[in-house]
């Protein structure tokens, strides 16, 4: 049942405010300002390193969470794609914990990476959608994301629910390790409770995004740029677009522009900037100017202040509500997903069943 939508992907994109509210309700019971995770036997106090491993979109969720664990909890994090990690067989230092992220809980490479870590680390955590899966079963602690069944091959609501649970875990780590005081934690918890309503506001941009996508659908290649915590989302935006519209797309840290990709910029090249007005905004703006000076087509996704700084020469823009700095990757995932969705619809590709892809990759 597509719930009145043309595709499961559209339905699942639109479900995000509801499923994320549910995930928040499960991990942060109403009325509480702290992150205690009742019933979860987890303590980050003596952990010296966290290793996160996953594939595809779940890998980008891990890369995003690295910023949270490092910045909020002062915990060193290593992130790897499962197919590399499992064959590299890296040494696991004492006092490490390993965390595996998987929607299906059955991804062969992620499961093999988990098995490699068994017995070598102090704890195996997983963040899964399928609570009855192999990855959940073989973990010491499996944390469900409460996204509900995801049918579209392109992961959407699972990604943002993974991010939500990973942020809550990072707050738990910060609380255990004393890197944030009660007021700072309460501030994040309050911001999280406001997230579903901001996601609804973002979904209202669907029609504006559809218009931008009509123009994007004519491109051969698209570049996605972001800095800091928006860099993994740039890669996720590019992955979504290539998976379902078959347009070649790359996600890059904006600061890497000068080190190669700027050679691609000409009047035919759309460049999507994911730039909330955060601490790195001015740095990203100067990259945007470099793209504009070479006649690249800038599509800027930002809040009102950011868009006004972007000026009148933008090829296209998508407005997002203002939000707490830690939550920008979750909020900005929605326009990235909608952009890929509407572009694929404009091109007439098979949105829910893109060619050559399977929902669950249980073989190598
Ligand atoms: O089930 P998993 O989360 O372990 O799957 C990992 C990837 O195969 C998956 O995220 C894939 O990249 C999606 N098609 C992305 O949209």
TrEMBL record:
Q: Which GO terms describe its molecular function?
A: carbohydrate derivative binding; glutamine-fructose-6-phosphate transaminase (isomerizing) activity
Q: What is its EC number?
A: 2.6.1.16
Per the record, its GO cellular-component terms are: cytosol
Sorted alphabetically, the keyword list is: Aminotransferase, Cytoplasm, Glutamine amidotransferase, Repeat, Transferase
Q: Where, by residue number, is the active site?
A: 359 (for fru-6p isomerization activity)
Enzyme class name: transferase
GO BP annotations, alphabetical order: amino sugar biosynthetic process; carbohydrate metabolic process; fructose 6-phosphate metabolic process; protein N-linked glycosylation; UDP-N-acetylglucosamine metabolic process
Localization recorded for this chain is: Cytoplasm
Origin, by domain of life?
A: Bacteria
- Chain segments annotated as coiled-coil in the UniProt record: none
| Catalytic reactions of this protein | D-fructose 6-phosphate + L-glutamine = D-glucosamine 6-phosphate + L-glutamate
Where in this chain does the record put each SIS domain? Answer: 40-179, 212-354
The UniProt function text for this chain reads: Catalyzes the first step in hexosamine metabolism, converting fructose-6P into glucosamine-6P using glutamine as a nitrogen source.
Give the multimer and partner information: Homodimer.
Name of protein: Glutamine--fructose-6-phosphate aminotransferase [isomerizing]
Please give the organism.
Pontibaca salina
The protein's gene is named glmS
| Shown residues in whole-protein numbering | 244 to 607 of 607
